[in-house]
Amino acid sequence: MGRWEPNARGRLAQAALELYAEQGYEQTTVGDITARAGLTERTFYRHFADKREVLFFGTEMAKDLLARTVADAPADASAMDAVGAALEALAAEFQENADRVRTRNTVVSAHAELRERELIKLAGLAEAMAEALRARGTPDPAASLAAETGIAVFKVAFVRWIDDPGRPDLPDVLRASTRELRTVLTEHASA
């Protein structure tokens, strides 16, 4: 092995996910991951704090995507429309990597500590969108409500997509879930 290996982070993430799926998260060691990736443990720890973080390394990129999409929404877009556009962009990213996303979800869902970390990640995504909305001039609590509601809709759409691999693309499921929320809110408002 040379001192520098291209795409070490991606190779480690791929190796970890494969091993977690094959032999289980608990049973997989950092040594197993680095052996599969053809890298050293030292290289692993340059990229990840622990084997759990391999499953969450895209969080900062997702936050950036969401914040940037909210910020770039048309000036006349409502807070919910800006959040919807941001979450559709994230859903499109997930759709492009559907097999990886589904495998990752299987691993995360099977372990309480990983589910807890997933909830922390989702809270961070909501906060990134809320901050971007505030920067656009949306006051609180509207910014927080729009972002948190968006994440709730995304979670429901994601589960529907995961549970039925024959469903349409995740962005389509997300749009349908958003329409369903609007129907529920309209029904409640007219009741």
TrEMBL record:
It comes from Kitasatospora arboriphila. Keywords: DNA-binding, Transcription, Transcription regulation. Residues 29-48 bind DNA. This is TetR family transcriptional regulator. The keyword Nuclease does not apply. InterPro entries: DNA-bd_HTH_TetR-type_CS, Homeodomain-like_sf, HTH-type_TetR-like_transc_reg, HTH_TetR, MftR_C. The keyword Transport does not apply. It holds the Pfam family TetR_C_14. Residues 6-66 form the HTH tetR-type domain.
